[in-house]
Prior knowledge:
Blueprint: H1 5-12, E1 21-26, E2 29-34, E3 37-43, E4 46-49, H2 53-59, E5 64-66, E6 73-77, H3 84-94
Antiparallel strand pairs: 1-2, 2-3, 3-4, 4-6, 5-6
Helix pairs in contact: 2-3
Amino acid sequence: MATDKSFAEYVAGQFDLGREITIKKMFGEYAIYADGKVFGFICDNKLFIKPIASAKEYIVNVVEGEAYPGSKMYYLIEEQLDDVAWMSGLVKAMWDELPEPKPKKKKS
């Protein structure tokens, strides 16, 4: 089941970071970014967060799941989706550990 665009937009609106939150459609699902840094995926109308140490420490009681069949395990966020402060704190906690966006290739 592909993610509804309205759900992906709702999730993107659940962050108050002072950073630009964007979503990018990928194969019927979405990647979610903060200032160009990917921090998770929205698949089957569920939010999956990159499995990094700072996220695990912030979440505490981690629930893991596959973003899509055969994917590696990600941290599934369900109950906290409506809590803007918690969601924002999660990305703030992850920020320094997230890789910088790759530079865009120049078209020849």
